Structures are given as structure tokens and as C-alpha cells.
Amino acid sequence: MEPRDRRTCQRCGARYDWKRSTTTSLKMTYCSTLCEKGALGFTLDTVLQGMRILRREWQPLLAA
């Protein structure tokens, strides 16, 4: 493992390999989803799961 793969978690200060981090959106910042949730109060995955992308042309069809 090369030294550039090692990061320091912004929450707990642990050294970790960012390629193996369990967080999907903030791998370069937090070592795990637990640290991401502990620091932010939520995970970006939960925020993104609540979003829907909808084409403008389809909005009238789904408005009913």
C-alpha cells in the first residue's frame, strides 16, 4: 500500500486506506459511515436516497 492511499479521518483521527472506507460519498474525509454520520448527523447516502430525478416531460403524467 502506498502512503498516498493513507488518509486521516476528520472525526476520529484514525489513519485509514481511503480505498477501503465504508462511506461511499466521502471516502477521502471519513474512515467509515459511522464517522460520517457522527460528524454530520447523517450520511450523504441517506440524503441522496430521498431525491428523485424526474424528467420535466413526465411531471404532468405523474401529477395525478
Provide a descriptive summary of the structure in words.
With 64 residues, the protein is α+β, with helices and mostly antiparallel strands. It has one domain. 28% of the residues lie in helices and 9% in strands. It has three helices and two strands, in the order ββααα. Strands 1-2 form a two-stranded antiparallel ribbon. Strand 1 and strand 2 form a beta hairpin. The model has no long low-confidence stretch (mean pLDDT 87).
Give descriptors for this structure.
2 strands, two-stranded antiparallel sheet, 3 helices, 64 residues, alpha+beta, 9% strand, 28% helix
SSE series: EEHHH
| Count, helices | 3
Q: Beta fraction of the residues?
A: 5-15%
**Largest beta sheet, briefly?**
2 strands, antiparallel
Distance between the termini: 55 Å
Helix content: 25-40%
Number of strands: 2
Radius of gyration: 17 Å
Kindly state the mean pLDDT as a whole number?
A: 87
- Total number of distinct structural domains: 1
Poorly predicted tracts of residues: none
Sheet/helix structural class: alpha+beta
| Tertiary shape | elongated
Strand order of the largest sheet: 1-2
